[in-house]
Backbone:
């Protein structure tokens, strides 16, 4: 009869004939440490340009002859939380917009955001086109920045509006 181990309650004789490998493999391996290379979450900013297409290319997916559209409105919509985010921005004299959401949208959730064309201030250029998904919503494309910024910069577009009544 073998000795009884008072700590474990096992009879040491029960382990006769079992190899050392079999005994050691019964112990659980340590849990691996969390990865130190987790991606850094940055706040998101979105940029793009909106144009007014010329009548010559109405209905054609091109920006040939298009002009930058001042005062056009775009909407950023993110569905990555319980309360969806919707924010709008207007284009400047060059048709450029820059939108930095007031709520916390990070690079972690940017894949759930889209930018849409909303409106044009020009009566002769009111019809939103789906060039680069401006009408149906364009997903954000990460834009690597040359200089360090306090946000992750994403781009969409370029987008375009066109006339509803061009002379033929």
Residues:
């Amino acid at each position: 009869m073998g000795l009884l181990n008072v700590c474990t309650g096992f009879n040491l004789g029960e382990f006769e004939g079992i190899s050392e490998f079999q005994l050691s493999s019964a112990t659980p391996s340590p849990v691996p440490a969390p990865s130190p290379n987790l991606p850094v979450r940055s706040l998101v900013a979105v940029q793009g340009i909106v144009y007014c297409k010329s009548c010559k290319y109405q209905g054609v997916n091109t920006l040939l002859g298009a002009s930058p559209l001042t005062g056009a409105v775009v909407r950023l919509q993110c569905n990555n939380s319980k309360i969806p985010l919707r924010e709008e921005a207007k284009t400047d004299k060059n048709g450029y917009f820059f939108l930095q959401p007031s709520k916390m949208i990070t690079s972690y959730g940017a894949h759930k955001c889209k930018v849409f064309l909303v409106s044009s201030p020009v009566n002769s250029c009111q019809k939103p086109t789906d060039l680069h998904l401006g009408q149906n919503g364009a997903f954000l494309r990460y834009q690597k920045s040359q200089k360090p910024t306090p946000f992750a910069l994403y781009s969409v577009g370029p987008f375009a509006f066109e006339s509803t009544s061009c002379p033929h």
